[in-house]
Design brief:
442 residues; alpha/beta; Rossmann fold; 2 domains; 4-stranded parallel sheet; 12 helices; 17% strand; disordered N terminus
Length: 442
């Protein structure tokens, strides 16, 4: 943790050789909702040594996560990361001598009504001091509940629309703890150009097939990517949107095989969907580089995709770093839960709970919501996923190297490739520990 520093809103600039716009917003995790109804539950979790924090009244912290349903793999990561943070906080004496208790709100299949119900119960019934989660609604409809109560809400939904909503409505207590989704496309466009310029990758064709799930997060990335490719002189041979979950990629792959592109860029972020695509693509691969959005960060992806995952490139705007802090966290996660930590949400939620605890301590009262939010805005906090520093107006994490060239002042936009069943981080420096290699099918 570092000392609080002022953080003026960064100037965003065009930085690539071909004047590629690096983004229109400032993400990790992933974003929008599957429809349908779903139940939810509230459960208090007092992690580890809560009693050791002293005799003060318990402080409740809410974690909003899809504990059940198709996104439960990611939801479990969120809860476990928050549990480890609460355990650390309580072992060190709690927040101002008071123990912290984690209250879990299950948003299940991510239907909007679930988010609203969870928000109302956390704020009104559970009397939480703050809340965090990996996902929100696309419309930010639940934000009003937190804003009216003043309760700080932290999330890693990676959605520009969430940031825009906060700015439009002047909300000062809602923080997006990762850069937003347009940076995914703009960042990858720059990497592509570097590989091409250095001769590392010679595309089989200056064309791309772009596939998106039908939600604003995925569509936004796909839109920025297509425009950036056109600016580079590339053709878009196919653009399709699918409904998630989607297991049968036959129609899309048939079109790709009939007119093989140089790049396949998939912005559906559900791990199971992407694993299915990789397996079906591997049966008859085209000479195309394959990029898949975020989903490979979830541990089940490699389990499901197997050898078909090798060669796949993916990225996240918030992910656990392979440095001393990140590796220590991953080792502790493994020892605690008997399974490997994912590369995004567990570390993110671990950081966010600790960031809030530091801000609440500086504020002098965890239930003085305005003071806590002001303390958060003033922090520069180094966690296991990188540096949290928020824009003054949008309260959204600032990306490195996309909007700042100082890694100590921005959240790193991480790009990985799966090689021999292992996740290899190769960008950006100084965090990258490996190199991009051409997939075997190329």
């Amino acid at each position: 943790m570092s000392e609080a520093t002022p953080n003026p809103t960064p100037q965003r600039k065009r930085v690539t050789r071909r004047d590629l716009v690096r983004g229109i917003g400032i993400a990790g995790a992933a974003g929008l909702l599957a429809g349908g109804a779903g139940g939810f539950f509230m459960s208090p979790r007092r992690a580890g040594t809560a009693a050791a924090a002293g005799g003060g009244e318990t402080i409740k912290f809410g974690i909003v996560a899809p504990v059940t349903g198709p996104y439960s793999g990611d939801g479990q990561e969120m809860v476990r990361g928050a549990e480890l943070a609460v355990e650390d906080i309580n072992a060190a004496g709690g927040v101002l001598g008071r123990p912290v208790e984690l209250v879990v709100g299950d948003i299940a299949d991510q239907a909007p009504e679930n988010f609203i119900q969870v928000a109302e119960r956390l704020v009104s019934r559970e009397k939480i001091a703050a809340a965090s989660g990996g996902y929100t609604t696309a419309t930010s409809v639940e934000f009003n509940t937190y804003a009216q109560a003043g309760v700080p809400l932290f999330h890693t939904n990676t959605l520009q629309e969430n940031t825009d909503y906060v700015v439009k409505h002047g909300m000062t207590n809602i923080f997006q703890c990762c850069p937003t989704e347009p940076w995914y496309a703009s960042g990858f466009l720059q990497l592509m150009q570097e590989w091409i310029d250095k001769g590392i990758w010679v595309p089989s064709a200056q064309s791309a097939a772009v596939i998106s799930s039908n939600d604003s997060y995925s569509i936004s990335i796909a839109t920025v990517m297509q425009q950036g490719l056109r600016d580079m002189g590339w053709d878009i041979t196919m653009y399709e949107e699918v409904s998630v979950p989607n297991a049968d990629w036959g129609p899309q792959l048939s079109k790709i095989r009939n007119n093989p592109p140089g790049l396949i860029f998939v912005t559906d972020y559900l791990a199971g969907d992407l694993a299915s695509f990789a397996k079906q693509f591997a049966t008859a691969p085209t000479p195309s580089l394959l990029y898949q959005q975020y989903g490979p960060s979830v541990p089940e992806y490699i389990d499901l995709a197997g050898d078909a995952a090798n060669g796949v490139v993916w990225s996240t705007t918030i992910g656990t770093l392979p440095d001393e802090m990140g590796l220590a966290f991953r080792e502790r996660y493994l020892q605690t839960y008997g399974t490997e930590a994912g590369l995004s949400q567990s570390g993110a939620q671990y950081d966010i709970v600790r960031l809030w605890a530091q801000a609440a301590s500086r504020a002098g009262d965890p239930y003085d919501f305005d003071a806590v939010s002001q303390a958060v805005s003033a922090l520069t906090f180094r966690g296991v996923v990188g540096t949290y520093r928020f824009g003054v107006e949008d309260r959204t994490a600032i990306p490195y190297p996309d909007a700042t060239d100082d890694p100590s002042l921005g959240m790193p936009h991480l790009t990985y490739q799966i090689q021999d069943g292992e996740q290899v981080l190769f960008s950006p420096a100084p965090y990258g520990k490996g190199s991009f290699v051409l997939p075997k099918w190329l």
